[in-house]
Write a structure and sequence with these properties.
Length: 161
């Protein structure tokens, strides 16, 4: 891969008002991302706004209201504007604190449904692989993708399992 000769020129503004870096991002989003590019993107630390939205899930009821669901979808889209998560993100699982009989809760990305699972209650198979990790409480939440789990720490850093 060629390296830029003048690194400081990458961030200079071009005639259209976009920097070279932003134009490269726009090109990346317009073509199909490789698995390596997608993995690198999904490994970046999560924003404070995204972390706060996920923490609030334990406060609500079993079903998100339309405004709450739309807000979470908006935050997800802003977190990853380069990629459509709908086809790869199965859901999010986190430790549940609403009562001692519950161990985890999840949000299903397709339906916007929050479910608080009792310790003896089974989970949907696509989310079950994250249950043990989430129940420990070591991570703030676990993003469950079709091919891996991404464990997000309190500081927003991401570990891939």
């Amino acid at each position: 891969m060629p390296r830029p000769i003048l690194k400081n020129r990458q961030n200079q503004q071009m005639g259209s008002g976009l920097s070279l870096e932003r134009k490269n991002e726009a090109r990346t989003s317009s073509r199909q991302m490789s698995k390596t590019e997608l993995d690198r993107l999904l490994r970046k630390p999560r924003s404070k706004e995204y972390m706060e939205a996920m923490r609030k899930l334990d406060i609500g009821s079993h079903v998100l209201g339309d405004a709450q669901r739309d807000e979470i979808i908006r935050i997800l889209q802003e977190e990853f504007p380069e990629v459509q998560l709908g086809g790869i993100l199965e859901g999010i699982v986190a430790k549940c604190y609403i009562g001692p009989e519950y161990d985890v809760h999840s949000i299903n990305m397709s339906g916007g449904i929050i479910h608080h699972f009792q310790k003896n209650e089974s989970m949907p198979p696509e989310l079950a692989k994250a249950r043990a990790l989430a129940a420990r409480g070591t991570y703030e939440f676990i993003e469950v993708y079709h091919d891996c789990c991404r464990c997000v720490s309190a500081d927003g850093s991401v570990a891939v399992i």
